Amino acid sequence: MAFLARGDKLAERGDHDGAIAAYRRAAGSGHPKVTAEAGVRLGTALRRAGEPAKAAAAYRAVMSTGDPDQTPRAAYLLGEVLTDTSHFDEAVAAYEVVIGTGHALRPDALVRLAEVQWYDLHDRAAAIAAYERAIDSGAPATAPCAMLGLADVLCDDDPERAADLYRRAADSGHAEAAPIARQALRQLGG
Question: Which domain of life is it from (predicted)?
Answer without folding.
Answer: Bacteria
